[in-house]
Design brief:
Layout (H helix, E strand, L loop, with lengths): L1 E5 L5 E5 L9 E10 L2 H8 L15 E8 L11 E4 L2 E2 L5 H4 L10 E3 L6 E3 L6 E5 L3 E3 L6 H4 L2 H14 L8 E4 L3 H12 L5 E4 L3 H9 L4 E3 L6 H8 L6 E4 L4 H9 L6 E4 L12 H7 L2 E4 L5 H12 L9 E6 L3 H8 L6 E5 L1
Helix pairs in contact: 4-5, 4-10
C-alpha cells in the first residue's frame, strides 16, 4: 500500500509498505479520508519531539472495513466506519469508569499521548483494534465523518469537562481546527456571546461565519481590553485552543471571579505563572482536555447525525495522499482551516 512514512524531522516520504493484516480482535480499514491535526504537523516539522521514527502519522480517519480478525463480530468487511485513534484495554478501573483515554495500556494510531504509538492513517490502509470502530451514519460523508475525533474532543472539553451552560459567555482563543469545533459545540449548546480570538483574519472570518458573535485579533490591540469591552462582567468560560504559551497567558488575563478555563490547545511542555492568591480569591476553575473516549465519540456522531454541527463548514482544502507534501506546506499558512487527506 502507499503510505506517508515519517523517517525524521521534515522527512515525510511517500513509499510502498506492506498492507497490514488483522490479528484476533483487529480490523483493517481502507482509509477514505483523514484530517490533518496540528499535532501531526508539529511532529513532521520537529516542533513536537516525542516522536519515535519511523511512523505513519494521521489520527483523524474514516473509511471502509477491508478485513477483520478472529473474534470480531460488531463490524464486518464492507462496513463504513469512523475510527477512534485511541485504543484501550477495556478492563482496568479507569476504562470501566469511562475514562478510557487514561488507560495505562492504551495505544494510539498515528497520534500522541500513550507510549504505545502505532502506524496511523496517512496511508491507504490502517490496522487497529476493532473496539475503536463506530458505524458511520449513512447520511454522513467521509470527509465530515473523519472529523469525529477532533469534534469529540471539543465536546469533551467544552461540555463534559468545563460544563458549559446555556447562555454562558464564551471566549475561544485560537480559531484553528479544534478551536472552530469548540466554537461550533459552544454555539450548538446555546452560548450567549461567543468571542473568537486569533492572529489570523482568515480564521476569524471563518469563526464569524460559523457562529462567533465577535472576533478579536491580538495584533489590533489588547485582548483583555477588547474582551471586557464586549463582556463588562467578564467571560463565563475561556477555552485555549491555540497551542502557543502566549495563548495560555492571555487566557489567565481574562479571568474574573467564577470563570471556568480550559487548557486545551497547548501540548508542548512550557510553563506559565499563576498568582496563587488571585486564583484562590477568584475561584476560577481550571480544566483541561486531551484525546477522546467512547462517550465523546458517540456524542460527536450524534451532533453530526442530527445536523446540529456540520464539520464540512470548517474544511477548506482536500488533497490526495500523493500531494501530502503540498498539504503540509499549506498547514504552515494562515490561509486555511481544516485540511483533509483522501488516500
Amino acid at each position: 500500500m502507499l503510505a506517508a512514512v515519517l523517517h525524521g524531522v521534515d522527512q515525510l516520504v511517500l513509499e510502498e509498505v506492506p498492507t497490514p493484516r488483522p490479528g484476533p480482535g483487529e480490523a483493517v480499514v481502507r482509509i477514505r479520508a483523514c484530517g490533518i491535526c496540528q499535532t501531526d504537523y508539529k511532529a513532521i516539522r520537529g516542533i513536537r519531539t516525542n516522536v519515535a521514527f519511523p511512523i505513519i502519522p494521521g489520527h483523524e480517519p474514516a473509511g471502509v472495513v477491508a478485513a477483520v480478525g478472529a473474534g470480531v463480530r460488531h463490524v464486518r468487511e464492507g462496513d463504513a466506519v469512523i475510527v477512534q485513534p485511541s485504543g484501550f484495554c477495556g478492563s482496568c478501573d479507569v476504562c470501566r469508569t469511562g475514562n478510557t483515554h487514561y488507560c495505562a495500556r492504551a495505544y494510539v494510531t498515528g497520534g500522541d499521548g500513550p507510549d504505545d504509538v502505532r502506524h496511523g492513517s496517512f496511508a491507504e490502509y490502517l490496522l487497529t483494534g476493532a473496539e475503536t470502530l463506530y458505524p458511520k451514519p449513512p447520511g454522513l460523508n467521509f470527509d465530515a465523518a473523519c472529523q469525529t475525533e477532533p469534534l469529540s474532543g471539543a465536546w469533551k472539553g467544552v461540555i463534559r469537562n468545563s460544563e458549559m451552560r446555556l447562555g454562558d459567555d464564551v471566549v475561544i482563543i485560537g480559531a484553528g481546527g479544534i478551536g472552530l469545533y469548540c466554537l461550533m459545540v459552544a454555539r450548538a449548546a446555546g452560548a450567549g456571546r461567543l468571542i473568537a480570538v486569533d492572529i489570523s483574519d482568515y480564521a476569524l472570518t471563518t469563526a464569524l461565519r460559523l457562529g462567533a458573535t465577535h472576533a478579536i485579533n491580538p495584533r489590533s490591540g489588547d485582548v483583555r481590553d477588547a474582551v471586557y469591552d464586549i463582556l463588562p462582567d467578564g467571560p463565563d468560560l475561556v477555552v485555549e485552543a491555540a497551542g502557543p504559551i502566549e495563548a495560555v497567558q492571555t487566557m489567565v488575563r481574562l479571568l474574573r471571579r467564577g470563570t471556568r478555563w480550559n487548557v486545551f490547545g497547548i501540548t508542548t511542555h512550557e510553563t506559565f505563572a499563576l498568582d496563587g492568591g488571585l486564583v484562590h480569591f477568584l475561584e476560577a476553575r481550571m480544566d483541561s482536555s486531551f484525546g477522546t473516549n467512547p462517550e465523546a465519540m458517540v456524542h460527536a456522531i450524534r451532533l453530526m447525525e442530527r445536523a446540529l454541527i456540520d464539520p464540512e463548514q470548517a474544511i477548506t482544502h482536500r488533497f490526495p495522499l500523493t500531494e501530502i507534501h503540498a498539504a503540509m506546506d499549506l498547514m504552515g499558512s494562515p490561509e486555511r482551516n481544516k485540511i483533509i487527506i483522501q488516500p
